[in-house]
């Protein structure tokens, strides 16, 4: 495999994205991970799989906590609205693992209190992101401007 693309070669559906989430703790300020992910959209569901990988475009810094052990998978699909038959909702199922090296109760607290803020921000920003991406490429085309794309000049040779 390599690159998290489910056995596909780099550039055939595997993208690398950079993230810098802010943690809800004064003892840890920033974390950074380079994530290789792949997604496919059969029928009405969207699936994503991600894992931590090293990437030459992500700077090494003693101020940033590296997370080498990270795996995440999700499914997003449209479901009928709960209160109005003519409306629809989005159902997302997430399976996630990461090892920050902190106690489990603290990790559970951070997820419980931070996940809703993340989901609200993601929901608010996704339509603009998708619209800007659609100006460049179609829904199943490789985006040469994606972070880590081999076509952007920062992928591994």
TrEMBL record:
Signal peptide: none
Region called Disordered, residue ranges: 1-27
InterPro entries per record: START-like_dom_sf, START_lipid_transfer
Protein known as: Uncharacterized protein
